[in-house]
């Protein structure tokens, strides 16, 4: 999907350096993907620490999942 957004030029340069991407769109896309993965990790850790995660699955079953169920 195509959208128009305003990003501070200094922030965009930092994003490009951190991602190693020379083009702006791939750099922003990669940064967004990484942010979403980190959020998913944080949510999973919060569920695990609160006891709301079912650890009955094997490692193979967990790895086969695209998204962990929010319970």
The total count of helices amounts to 3
- The pLDDT mean sits at 87
What is the overall shape? elongated
Low-confidence stretches: none
Rg estimate, integer Å: 17 Å
Largest sheet composition: none
Alpha-beta content class: mainly alpha
Q: Give the tally of structural domains.
A: 1
- Report the count of strand segments: 0
Helix content: 55-70%
Description:
The protein is mainly α and 71 residues long. The protein has one domain (9-64). The chain contains three helices and no strands. α1 (9-19) packs across α2 (24-50). The longest helix has 27 residues, at 24-50. The protein is elongated. The model has no long low-confidence stretch (mean pLDDT 87).
Summarize this, please?
The chain is built from 3 helices and no strands. The chain has helices at 9-19, 24-50, 59-64.
Topology:
Layout lengths: L8 H11 L4 H27 L8 H6 L7
What key attributes describe this structure?
71 residues, mainly alpha, 3 helices, 62% helix, elongated
């Amino acid at each position: 999907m195509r959208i128009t957004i305003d990003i501070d030029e200094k922030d965009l340069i930092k994003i490009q350096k951190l991602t190693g991407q020379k083009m702006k769109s791939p750099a922003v896309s990669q940064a967004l993907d990484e942010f979403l993965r980190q959020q998913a990790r944080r949510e999973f850790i919060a569920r695990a620490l609160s006891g709301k995660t079912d650890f009955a699955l094997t490692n193979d079953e967990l790895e086969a999942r695209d998204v962990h169920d929010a319970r």
